[in-house]
């Protein structure tokens, strides 16, 4: 029995073949026919196989070309996104660097300003002390001269000399500007006290643990535990005034 697919006209030699064709193609309408399913000659079969092979190869080639095109496209997309990421990264780096630079400059300006202020205070202090000394000397000599006789005049130069020596002596206190994370704390510490006392006050005023070291920027130096017990008046580079950065180890 021969069946013919009414949808595409294909001849099918059995019901099984028709079912198979129906499943494969989705065609549903079949009719009985008198036509014979043509047996193919070996040459025809060979040619059909060749044609099928050629078709498969063609398809493979197309697939490959498509794949390559797809790969290229994906690569371009990846490249572009890499470029964009790199550009964004660079911009971010530039911004960060700029911000750091501005922060540094700001800090430097503040340090300079602070230093100027401290120097001005010291200068004013010096002038005040000089004025006090000169008026003391004047009072001393004016009270000395008329009241005393010859033997005591020999004593007066020595007293004025000691007063002068005292005024030229080292300052009685150190002034320190402590910088920590944007906070500033100004301390006046008696000359005989130590960096340990400074550290103690920093801890109390800035509400931080007691620092274990201090650093200065001009000149660059670090003061650690080994000098913490020495009187600040012995630390020539930071006495009588300095900007100190506390640190903890
Ligand atoms: Zn069909």
UniProtKB/TrEMBL annotation:
Membrane spanning stretches: none
Domain C2H2-type: 5-27
SUPFAM superfamilies assigned: Ubiquitin-like (SSF54236)
Annotated GO MF terms: K48-linked polyubiquitin modification-dependent protein binding
UniProt biased composition (Low complexity): 131-167
Ranges of Basic and acidic residues composition bias in the record: 53-73, 81-90, 97-113
Xref: InterPro entries: Ubiquitin-like_domsf, Znf_C2H2_type
An annotated GO cellular component: nucleus
One GO-annotated biological process of the protein: negative regulation of protein ubiquitination
Region (Disordered): 23-42, 53-113, 125-178
Protein name: Zf-C2H2 type zinc finger protein/UBA domain protein
Naturally occurring in which organism (per UniProt): Schizosaccharomyces osmophilus
């Amino acid at each position: 029995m021969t069946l013919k697919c009414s949808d595409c006209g294909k001849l099918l030699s059995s019901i099984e073949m028709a079912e198979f064709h129906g499943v494969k193609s989705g065609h549903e309408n079949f009719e009985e026919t008198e036509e014979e399913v043509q047996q193919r000659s070996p040459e025809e079969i060979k040619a059909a196989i060749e044609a099928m092979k050629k078709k498969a190869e063609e398809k493979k080639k197309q697939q490959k070309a498509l794949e390559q095109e797809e790969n290229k496209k994906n690569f371009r997309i990846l490249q572009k996104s890499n470029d964009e990421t790199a550009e964004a990264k660079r911009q971010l780096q530039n911004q960060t660097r700029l911000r750091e630079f501005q922060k540094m400059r700001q800090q430097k300006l503040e340090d300079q300003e602070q230093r100027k202020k401290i120097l001005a205070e010291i200068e004013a202090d010096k002038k005040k002390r000089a004025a006090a000394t000169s008026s003391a000397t004047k009072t001393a000599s004016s009270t000395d001269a008329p009241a005393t006789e010859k033997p005591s005049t020999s004593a007066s130069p020595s007293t004025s000399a000691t007063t002068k020596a005292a005024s030229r002596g080292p300052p009685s206190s150190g002034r320190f500007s402590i910088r920590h994370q944007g906070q500033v704390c100004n301390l006046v510490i008696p000359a005989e006290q130590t960096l340990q006392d400074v550290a103690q006050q920093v801890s109390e005023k800035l509400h931080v643990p007691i620092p274990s070291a201090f650093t200065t920027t001009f000149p660059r130096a670090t003061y650690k535990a080994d000098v913490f017990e020495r009187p600040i008046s012995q630390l020539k580079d930071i006495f009588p005034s300095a900007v100190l950065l506390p640190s903890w180890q």
